[in-house]
Specification:
This protein is an alpha/beta fold. The protein has two domains: about 180 residues, P-loop containing nucleotide triphosphate hydrolases (Rossmann fold, 3-Layer(aba) Sandwich), CATH 3.40.50.300; about 70 residues, no CATH class. Helix content is about 40%, strand content about 25%. The strands form two sheets. It has a six-stranded mixed sheet with strand order 6-7-8-3-9-10, with helices on both faces. Strand 9 and strand 10 form a beta hairpin. It is globular.
Length: about 260
């Protein structure tokens, strides 16, 4: 498989006040949310990021997507540096998080057209892409309904369609099925499989072990900002379940950190 993403020793530090240092029991004026993380991803692969809340998964994803700057390190996205060529990186990445909030007074169709225009996508191409994605997610009948009147599932599907309006080579999903009903979650996971089959690279963060086991080619485990393991699910877990393996690694990593 062809390498499409190479994350190289990225680190993100946040400054701390004296009060924050005391509350976190840290003697340094900064907190390393992500500490020297490296991994690769390939075309036609789903790469999973697994870790507890606050481990650094979302911060890692945001640095790759150039939504926040790395304190140190770099990542190549289709050969473009997140440090030196962020605009080119954004052209090749789609990023979906539960924090993406669409304006409730506008419709999915309006949002799609707006972001397609921002991306510089020709109108005929954007219309074709909108028809394809809205049909894929069952949004056609809701295309002209205000976001505020949609169900949570349809809001999430609209956000997903809009996040990939530009047909990116790499798609980053942060907890894509969180809070969704089982039917909508199935629509989303089926689409992840479709993206993989079409040669896209999918970076997926989730707490659902079965989702990681069923979808991911490889998994990276992040604990306390560090990548403590990275391999195929089979190589990591052996005869155990991914859940059993994760908690063994977690207990070991947190014990060593004390």
């Amino acid at each position: 498989m062809k390498e499409i993403l190479h994350v190289k020793n990225i680190t993100k530090r946040f400054k701390l006040t004296k009060k924050q240092q005391a509350s976190k029991n840290i003697n340094k004026p900064y907190f390393a949310a992500v500490d020297n993380v490296s991994f690769k991803s390939y075309e036609g692969e789903v790469f999973g990021l697994l870790g507890p809340n606050g481990a650094g998964k979302t911060t890692t994803m945001r640095m790759i997507a150039t939504l926040i700057n790395a304190s140190e390190g770099d990542a190549d996205v289709k050969g473009f540096s997140i440090v030196r060529e962020p605009l080119e990186v954004r052209r090749n990445i789609g990023f979906l998080t539960n924090e993406l909030k669409l304006d409730e007074f506008f419709t999915p169709s309006f949002h799609f057209d707006f972001f397609a225009e921002l991306r510089g996508i020709p109108k005929n191409v954007a219309n074709r892409r909108k028809e394809e994605l809205f049909d894929r997610f069952g949004l056609g009948q809701y295309a002209d309904v205000k976001i505020g009147k949609l169900s949570q599932g349809n809001k999430q599907k609209a956000s997903l369609a809009i996040s990939i309006v530009h047909d990116p080579a790499i798609v980053i999903f942060d907890e894509p099925t969180n809070g969704l009903d089982v039917v909508t979650a199935k629509v989303v996971t089926d689409f992840l499989v479709q993206l993989k089959q079409s040669g896209k690279s999918v970076i997926l963060s989730t707490h659902i072990f079965s989702l990681l086991e069923n979808l991911c080619d490889r998994v990276g485990i992040i604990i306390n900002g560090k990548m403590v393991a990275c391999d195929t699910v089979k190589a990591l877990a052996g005869e155990k379940s991914l859940e059993e393996m994760f908690f063994e690694i977690y207990r070991k990593a947190t014990k060593e950190a004390v």
